[in-house]
Amino acid sequence: MSEIGYKLYKNLEDDVLLKEAYSKMEKLRFLSSLNNEEMYWEEANEFNELIIEIKRRNITINKEMWIKKIIIDI
Length: 74
Prior knowledge:
Number of helices: 3
Radius of gyration: 13 Å
Number of strands: 0
Mean pLDDT: 83
């Protein structure tokens, strides 16, 4: 039996969806330093939903920009 749920990010515009994904990445980075696994995995599951929606829409990202954000914003 499959689980049917509300797609939280379905109605967001592409650029807003990408910004939300980056925001979740920052939050996951912060939560990983707190040693709170429960909160971390809740956010990780939401991040996974974002990635699924990005892939479903076949959105391409500027990889160079994302790498800079990930590396420089640490």
